[in-house]
Structures are given as structure tokens and as C-alpha cells.
Specification:
With 78 residues, this protein is mainly alpha-helical. The protein is built from 2 helices and no strands.
Length: 78
Amino acid sequence: MSAAVLGAICGAAVGYLFFTDQGKVIRERFEPAIDDLRREFTKFQGTIEKVGLLANDGMRVMEEFKSARSQYSSGTSH
């Protein structure tokens, strides 16, 4: 029952936004804000990707360090 009510509310909202003059005005007012939000989300995605690359670089450096350390310690005998 609640899914049907939710569907009816969503349908009414879409109908209002797309088939009434007031809905058109609301859509036109929200469009710039939605575009800004989309741009910010895209920038955020880029930031997250850069953090991932940085983490991968850090892991690579640590692995190289561990490898060099083990080679050094196995190459020297006392």
C-alpha cells in the first residue's frame, strides 16, 4: 500500500512540474542550482580519484621500500 501511495505522490509531482505553468517556473528556477550541484559532484569525483591515485602511489612506494630493505638485509651477512 505504501508503495502505491509513494508512486501516486511521485506521479503527481512529475505531472505538476511538467504539465503546469507553475511547474515550469519551478523547473526553471531549479535548473541553475542542479547544474551547479552536478559540477560540484563532478569536481568531487575528480578529487576522490586523485586521492585513490595518491594512495596507490603510497602503497607502491611502501612495497618498493620493503623490497629494497629485504634485499639489503639478505645481501649482507655478519
